[in-house]
Design a protein that fits this description.
Elements: H1 5-9, E1 11-18, H2 24-34, H3 57-62, E2 69-75, E3 78-84, H4 92-100, E4 104-110, H5 117-128, E5 133-138, H6 147-158, E6 161-164, E7 166-169, E8 177-180, E9 185-190, E10 196-200, H7 207-222, H8 226-233, H9 240-252, E11 256-261, H10 270-280, E12 289-292, E13 301-303, E14 312-321, E15 324-333, E16 336-337, E17 341-344, E18 350-352, E19 355-360, E20 363-367, E21 369-370, E22 375-379, E23 387-390, E24 397-398, E25 408-414, H11 420-433, E26 438-441, E27 448-452, H12 455-468, E28 473-475, E29 479-480, E30 483-485, E31 490-498, E32 505-515, E33 524-528, H13 540-549, E34 564-572, H14 580-594, E35 601-614, H15 618-627, E36 631-638, E37 641-649, H16 656-663, E38 669-679, H17 682-701
Parallel strand pairs: 1-3, 1-4, 4-5, 5-11, 6-11, 33-34
Antiparallel strand pairs: 2-3, 7-8, 8-9, 9-10, 12-13, 12-24, 14-15, 14-23, 15-22, 16-21, 17-18, 17-23, 19-20, 19-22, 25-27, 25-28, 25-29, 26-27, 30-35, 31-32, 32-34, 35-37, 35-38, 36-37
Helix pairs in contact: 7-8, 13-14
Length: 702
């Protein structure tokens, strides 16, 4: 299959990410319409066919994006692969995996809400994967819209060097268009659906304001280019080519964030944003990508967006639907050719790529192959999310995506006995699709547990079980993933000796346990400082294995152990009777006997919460949060809206959405994300331990 190198330079891979209700899906719909991909615009809520990218029934009913959807459009002769991602923190893995494979992104912000809780999370994700971005301040037609305040928040809250590329012509209900600061033109959007872009001279009344804002934009850009700085110092007019070139370099170096304005719902400001995507965001050939060689830990293999090189592609998402298993790929190097076979670098298996498709939300178009920079689907593979495929075995792997740990779990069982097989099949599929969903078995009760990122996350899967697999299920109350951690050091000197005819077992370990610092990255640290060969080096891994095998259940209430540092300093062995097994059993005895002496305590997940509500309801909301053992970390009032930031234990948040609705007559919105683990107060700990013991006794009795 021939692949034109110009196609690579003319491709842009972008994602649209934002806080809930900032207008991501509405913006995606306008992009599809203006680029000619669709001929009628749907909306997220209301009558009509619904938004193209929110194709699941659940998404249309709830008015939220649940799963990222991919499509491709054409603009100014360039192909744009576009992924619309969810805003809700419960579906954060969708944003993680999308940003992992994209070369650029649009960060959508509400002109009234500005930088909100989820905006901070998305900013962290974009930085983690080194994704250049443009910012788009949406909803300029809303009461209270203030783009200058939002730009200041980008500076203050996200640490961005953000700069306006446009000025608004009118605000709120009078928002008519924008002034392009580079071209020095007023831009209006005519026609019933804003499809005709009209450019005119800047209104005389705004000329001074435009010149001052343009000067500020050029000075901001001159920080990244000596050439532009010299032109400005000489008081000459820089060429458009120079401005765009410097802007693109500054954006691609992740240092500068250009800001655009509009109202997607009112069909204003979308076309200039698409122009900026093509002009300022990088092509696949301009993005540096490295792979990790076999046995390595750091990415050192440089990849090139060259169709003639061996294939390297990443499977970043799995979807199973009535047509079978579909694996979404991003091609980094070489070409995928229909009918060829490639190696899964994780399993070493060679798999045939029988059908390759281009995606448009839930629709597919068969193609012969794909080259560097393409995002396509392949049918019928046995892949896992994050797998690397290459033309040759043992090539290496691409850096995988970050998968956050689940913080909530609940029991699930089918109403009818015949539904058990369908339930198991459905959960197996959901696990393959979503790495943040875990399926566990409760040893005490024998129940099946599902663990995820939040109540909404698990609710959506329960609803999908009913609709897609026709499995009616009974769901238990949500349970919190507590942890057990030590609070004081304890020394140990444990000897394991067992004699049964013939060779016996002998192991002896001496050392100490202590708590890890709160800011430690790892949850368990094993160290050995044995001198003089008191324990031979070959037994050290067995000691660590024995200790680690005991971390899953702590002595307090059977929760996983974290924050533990074990140092082995001495011991002894026997020439004949010592073995890996003997030292492993001895290490398990160390954990069983010594860990309770570190005075362990329970830790609980603390959620960072942000509530936006009418100012008149602020007192009620704050009082309720404090009643939930919450800590208020800040609050701001923006006109009639109050924003409350705080931290609250996950255990106190179940059913919070219903309570908040009643406190604010349904006018409040909130978002939560995991913040950290924190010690449970003594009285609450006693209650949790007592309930856990009661359940254990009941399980034994039954």
């Amino acid at each position: 299959m021939g692949f034109d190198r110009n196609d690579i330079d003319n491709t842009r891979n972008i994602g649209i990410s934002a806080h809930i209700d900032s207008g991501k899906t509405t913006l995606s719909e306008r992009i599809l319409y203006y680029s000619g991909r669709i001929h009628r615009m749907g909306e997220v809520r209301g009558e009509g066919p619904g938004a193209t990218m929110d194709y699941m029934d659940l998404e249309r009913e709830r008015g939220i994006t649940i799963t990222s959807a991919a499509t491709s459009v054409s603009w100014l002769g360039k192909k744009i692969n576009l992924i619309d991602t969810p805003g809700h923190v419960d579906f954060t893995v969708e944003v993680e995996r999308s940003l992992r494979v994209l070369d650029g992104a649009i960060l959508v912000l509400c002109a009234v809400g500005g930088v909100q809780a989820q905006s901070l999370t998305i900013d962290r994700q974009m930085r983690r994967y080194h994704v250049p971005r443009l910012a788009f301040i949406n909803k300029m037609d809303r009461v209270g819209a203030d783009p200058f305040k939002v730009v200041k928040q980008l500076h203050d809250r996200l640490g961005c060097d953000a700069c306006l590329m446009q000025l608004p012509i009118g605000r709120e209900a009078n928002f008519q268009g924008v002034i392009d600061l580079v071209m020095q033109e007023a831009v209006f959007f005519d026609g019933a659906e804003g499809e005709r872009v009209r450019r005119e001279p800047v209104p005389v009344t705004m000329r001074e304001e435009m010149l001052a804002a343009r000067r500020q934009m050029l000075e901001s850009l001159a920080m990244y280019s000596d050439e532009l700085l010299e032109v400005l110092l000489a008081e000459e007019e820089p060429s458009l080519d120079l401005i765009y070139r410097v802007a693109k370099e500054a954006v691609c170096s992740l240092q500068w964030t250009p800001v655009f304005l509009g109202s997607a719902f009112k069909n204003k400001g979308v076309q200039p944003l698409l122009d900026a995507v093509v002009r300022l965001l990088p092509a696949p050939s301009e993005s540096a990508v490295k792979a990790i060689p076999p046995g390595g830990t750091e990415p050192t293999l440089a990849l090139s967006a060259d169709p003639d090189q061996p294939l390297v592609a990443m499977a970043f998402k799995l979807v199973e639907d009535p047509y079978g298993a579909l694996t979404l790929f991003r091609v980094y190097q070489g070409c995928i050719v229909k009918g060829e076979s490639y190696y899964n670098q994780r399993t070493g298996k060679r798999e045939r790529f029988g059908r390759v498709v281009r995606l448009h939300a839930d629709k597919r178009e068969e193609i012969e192959g794909a080259g560097p920079g393409d995002i396509v689907g392949v049918l019928g593979l046995d892949a896992a999310s994050g797998d690397t495929y290459a033309s040759v075995p043992n090539f290496g792997t691409l850096e995988s995506m970050f998968v956050p740990e689940p913080v909530i779990k609940m029991a699930i069982m089918p109403v009818e006995r015949g539904g058990a097989d369908r339930l198991a099949k459905a959960l197996a599929r959901f696990r393959r699709e979503d790495p943040t969903l875990q399926v566990l078995s409760d040893e005490e009760s024998g129940e099946t547990l599902i663990a995820g990122m939040g109540e909404l996350h698990l609710d959506v899967y329960v609803e999908r079980l009913r609709r897609e697999y026709k499995v009616e299920v009974v769901v238990g109350a949500p349970k919190v993933n507590y942890r057990e951690a030590p609070t004081q050091p304890a020394e140990f000197n444990v000897r394991h000796r067992k004699q049964t005819g013939g060779s016996g077992q002998y192991a002896h370990i001496v050392g100490r346990m202590e708590p890890l610092p709160e800011d430690a990255e790892e949850s368990f640290l094993f160290e050995e400082a044995i001198v003089g060969g008191r324990i031979p080096k070959q037994y050290i891994p067995a000691i660590e294995k024995g200790l680690r095998s005991s971390l899953e259940k702590g002595p307090l209430a059977g929760y996983p152990i974290v924050g533990l540092h074990v140092l082995v300093e001495d011991g002894s062995y026997h020439e004949v009777d010592s073995s890996d097994l003997a030292f492993q059993i001895c290490a398990q005895t160390v954990m069983r006997e010594t860990f309770p002496r570190t005075r362990p305590v329970l830790l609980e997940p603390i959620m960072r919460i942000e509530v936006e509500c009418p100012e008149s309801c602020q007192g009620n909301v704050v009082g309720d949060l404090i009643g939930r053992r919450g800590l208020i970390t800040g609050s701001t009032v923006m006109g009639p809206i109050a924003r409350i930031m705080g931290e609250v234990p996950l255990a106190e948040t179940f059913g919070y959405a219903t309570v908040l609705r009643s406190l604010t007559q349904g006018q409040a919105t909130f978002s939560m994300e995991f913040c950290r683990y924190k010690r449970v107060p003594g009285s609450v700990q006693e209650e949790i331990v007592a309930q856990r013991k009661k359940r254990q006794i009941a399980a034994v009795g039954s």
